[in-house]
Amino acid sequence: WAHWNGWRCRLWMDAIARIRSAISCSAIACNGRKECKMKTCGEIAAWFDRRWPESLAESWDNVGLLVGRAGKEVHTVYVALDATEAAIEAAVRERADMLITYYPLIFGGVKHVSDRDALGRRLLSLIAADIACYSGHTSFDIAKGGMADLAAGRLGLFDEKKELLPLEAAGEQD
To answer: What residues contact residue 43 under an 8 Å CB cut-off, 6+ apart?
Structure first.
Protein backbone atom coordinates (compact mmCIF):
# COMPACT_ATOMS: atom_id res chain seq x y z
CA TRP A 1 0.00 0.00 0.00
CA ALA A 2 2.78 2.45 0.86
CA HIS A 3 4.49 1.79 -2.50
CA TRP A 4 1.22 2.36 -4.42
CA ASN A 5 0.48 5.45 -2.35
CA GLY A 6 3.97 6.75 -3.20
CA TRP A 7 3.18 6.29 -6.89
CA ARG A 8 -0.14 8.10 -6.47
CA CYS A 9 1.63 10.94 -4.70
CA ARG A 10 4.14 11.31 -7.56
CA LEU A 11 1.35 11.16 -10.16
CA TRP A 12 -0.71 13.68 -8.19
CA MET A 13 2.32 16.00 -8.17
CA ASP A 14 2.43 15.68 -11.98
CA ALA A 15 -1.23 16.64 -12.10
CA ILE A 16 -0.66 19.67 -9.88
CA ALA A 17 1.34 21.33 -12.66
CA ARG A 18 -1.68 20.99 -14.96
CA ILE A 19 -4.03 22.26 -12.28
CA ARG A 20 -1.84 25.25 -11.41
CA SER A 21 -1.46 26.35 -15.03
CA ALA A 22 -5.17 25.96 -15.72
CA ILE A 23 -6.47 27.90 -12.72
CA SER A 24 -3.37 30.09 -12.49
CA CYS A 25 -3.50 30.49 -8.72
CA SER A 26 -0.58 30.92 -6.44
CA ALA A 27 0.34 27.77 -4.60
CA ILE A 28 2.41 27.19 -1.52
CA ALA A 29 5.46 26.30 -3.62
CA CYS A 30 5.30 29.64 -5.45
CA ASN A 31 6.58 32.97 -4.25
CA GLY A 32 4.14 35.83 -4.32
CA ARG A 33 0.42 35.94 -4.81
CA LYS A 34 -1.16 35.80 -8.24
CA GLU A 35 -4.76 36.31 -9.24
CA CYS A 36 -6.67 33.24 -10.39
CA LYS A 37 -8.08 33.02 -13.90
CA MET A 38 -11.13 31.43 -12.31
CA LYS A 39 -12.56 33.59 -9.60
CA THR A 40 -14.84 31.25 -7.61
CA CYS A 41 -14.87 27.76 -6.14
CA GLY A 42 -17.75 26.96 -8.48
CA GLU A 43 -15.73 27.95 -11.55
CA ILE A 44 -12.80 25.83 -10.39
CA ALA A 45 -15.11 22.88 -9.64
CA ALA A 46 -16.71 23.27 -13.10
CA TRP A 47 -13.24 23.22 -14.70
CA PHE A 48 -12.46 19.98 -12.86
CA ASP A 49 -15.81 18.51 -13.92
CA ARG A 50 -15.12 19.33 -17.59
CA ARG A 51 -11.68 17.76 -17.39
CA TRP A 52 -12.37 14.86 -14.99
CA PRO A 53 -16.19 14.49 -14.85
CA GLU A 54 -17.65 13.69 -11.45
CA SER A 55 -20.05 11.33 -13.25
CA LEU A 56 -17.07 8.99 -13.91
CA ALA A 57 -16.37 8.51 -10.20
CA GLU A 58 -17.06 5.13 -8.66
CA SER A 59 -20.48 4.87 -6.99
CA TRP A 60 -18.88 4.41 -3.55
CA ASP A 61 -16.67 7.51 -3.94
CA ASN A 62 -17.31 11.11 -2.92
CA VAL A 63 -15.85 13.68 -5.31
CA GLY A 64 -16.42 17.34 -6.07
CA LEU A 65 -16.79 20.41 -3.87
CA LEU A 66 -17.14 18.73 -0.46
CA VAL A 67 -16.81 21.76 1.81
CA GLY A 68 -17.54 25.40 1.10
CA ARG A 69 -19.59 27.73 -1.05
CA ALA A 70 -19.55 27.61 -4.86
CA GLY A 71 -19.68 31.42 -4.99
CA LYS A 72 -16.65 31.93 -2.72
CA GLU A 73 -13.98 34.08 -4.34
CA VAL A 74 -10.62 32.32 -4.72
CA HIS A 75 -7.21 33.98 -4.71
CA THR A 76 -5.00 31.23 -3.31
CA VAL A 77 -5.25 27.46 -3.67
CA TYR A 78 -3.43 24.86 -1.58
CA VAL A 79 -3.02 21.41 -3.17
CA ALA A 80 -2.41 18.23 -1.16
CA LEU A 81 -2.73 14.49 -1.65
CA ASP A 82 -5.05 14.20 1.36
CA ALA A 83 -6.87 16.65 3.62
CA THR A 84 -4.91 15.69 6.72
CA GLU A 85 -4.83 17.92 9.77
CA ALA A 86 -1.30 18.96 8.76
CA ALA A 87 -2.41 19.88 5.21
CA ILE A 88 -5.35 21.87 6.55
CA GLU A 89 -3.13 23.64 9.10
CA ALA A 90 -0.74 24.59 6.27
CA ALA A 91 -3.64 25.84 4.11
CA VAL A 92 -4.86 27.96 7.05
CA ARG A 93 -1.34 29.28 7.70
CA GLU A 94 -0.97 30.26 4.01
CA ARG A 95 -4.42 31.88 4.01
CA ALA A 96 -5.64 29.64 1.19
CA ASP A 97 -9.19 30.07 -0.05
CA MET A 98 -9.47 26.55 -1.40
CA LEU A 99 -7.88 23.17 -0.70
CA ILE A 100 -7.73 20.74 -3.63
CA THR A 101 -7.01 17.12 -2.74
CA TYR A 102 -6.81 13.80 -4.49
CA TYR A 103 -8.42 11.79 -1.67
CA PRO A 104 -11.85 12.94 -0.43
CA LEU A 105 -12.16 14.36 3.05
CA ILE A 106 -15.64 12.85 3.47
CA PHE A 107 -16.14 9.24 2.35
CA GLY A 108 -19.23 8.01 4.16
CA GLY A 109 -22.10 9.55 5.99
CA VAL A 110 -21.31 12.16 8.61
CA LYS A 111 -23.32 11.71 11.80
CA HIS A 112 -21.88 14.70 13.64
CA VAL A 113 -19.35 17.49 13.24
CA SER A 114 -17.52 18.13 16.49
CA ASP A 115 -13.99 18.32 17.79
CA ARG A 116 -14.30 14.82 19.28
CA ASP A 117 -12.97 13.05 16.17
CA ALA A 118 -10.44 13.69 13.39
CA LEU A 119 -12.99 14.26 10.61
CA GLY A 120 -14.97 16.69 12.72
CA ARG A 121 -11.83 18.64 13.68
CA ARG A 122 -10.78 18.88 10.02
CA LEU A 123 -14.23 20.01 8.88
CA LEU A 124 -14.43 22.58 11.68
CA SER A 125 -10.96 23.92 10.80
CA LEU A 126 -11.90 24.36 7.13
CA ILE A 127 -15.22 25.98 7.93
CA ALA A 128 -13.73 28.29 10.58
CA ALA A 129 -11.04 29.44 8.14
CA ASP A 130 -13.57 29.69 5.25
CA ILE A 131 -11.51 27.30 3.13
CA ALA A 132 -13.40 25.30 0.51
CA CYS A 133 -12.32 21.72 -0.23
CA TYR A 134 -12.53 19.95 -3.59
CA SER A 135 -11.53 16.30 -4.12
CA GLY A 136 -11.08 14.41 -7.38
CA HIS A 137 -10.21 10.78 -6.49
CA THR A 138 -11.77 8.17 -8.83
CA SER A 139 -13.08 10.70 -11.35
CA PHE A 140 -9.44 11.79 -11.70
CA ASP A 141 -8.31 8.14 -11.85
CA ILE A 142 -10.65 7.16 -14.68
CA ALA A 143 -10.91 10.22 -16.94
CA LYS A 144 -8.70 10.79 -19.99
CA GLY A 145 -5.56 12.61 -18.87
CA GLY A 146 -6.09 11.50 -15.27
CA MET A 147 -4.22 9.20 -12.91
CA ALA A 148 -4.43 6.08 -15.12
CA ASP A 149 -3.05 7.98 -18.14
CA LEU A 150 -0.31 9.58 -16.04
CA ALA A 151 0.68 6.14 -14.73
CA ALA A 152 0.62 4.65 -18.26
CA GLY A 153 2.84 7.50 -19.46
CA ARG A 154 5.32 6.94 -16.64
CA LEU A 155 5.41 3.23 -17.51
CA GLY A 156 6.00 3.95 -21.21
CA LEU A 157 2.71 2.42 -22.34
CA PHE A 158 1.91 5.07 -24.99
CA ASP A 159 3.13 5.01 -28.59
CA GLU A 160 4.28 8.09 -30.54
CA LYS A 161 0.61 8.95 -31.30
CA LYS A 162 -0.12 9.03 -27.56
CA GLU A 163 -2.23 5.88 -27.87
CA LEU A 164 -1.96 3.02 -25.41
CA LEU A 165 0.22 0.16 -26.57
CA PRO A 166 -1.42 -3.30 -26.44
CA LEU A 167 -0.12 -5.50 -23.65
CA GLU A 168 0.88 -9.09 -24.31
CA ALA A 169 0.41 -11.80 -21.74
CA ALA A 170 3.62 -13.36 -20.44
CA GLY A 171 3.89 -16.79 -18.93
CA GLU A 172 1.20 -19.43 -18.58
CA GLN A 173 -2.43 -18.46 -19.02
CA ASP A 174 -5.56 -20.34 -17.94
So the answer is: none
Q: Which amino acid is at 22?
A: A
- Helical spans, DSSP H, in the chain: 2-23, 41-51, 85-93, 118-129, 137-142, 147-154
Q: Which of these, 119, 116, 8, 144, lies nearest to 66 by C-alpha position?
A: 119
Nearest to 105 by CA among 148, 77, 137: 137
Q: Which of 118, 49, 51, 57 is nearest to 89 (CA)?
A: 118
Q: Residue 49 and residue 56: Cα distance in Å, rounded?
A: 10
Cα separation, 66 vs 100, in Å, equals: 10
Residue 104 one-letter amino acid: P
**In this structure, are strands 77-80 and 98-101 parallel, antiparallel, or unpaired?**
parallel
The tens place of each residue's pLDDT in the chain, 174 residues long, gives 334 445 556 666 666 666 666 665 544 333 233 445 668 899 889 988 988 899 989 999 999 999 999 999 988 888 888 899 999 999 999 899 999 888 899 988 888 899 999 999 999 999 999 999 999 888 888 888 777 777 777 777 766 666 665 655 555 655
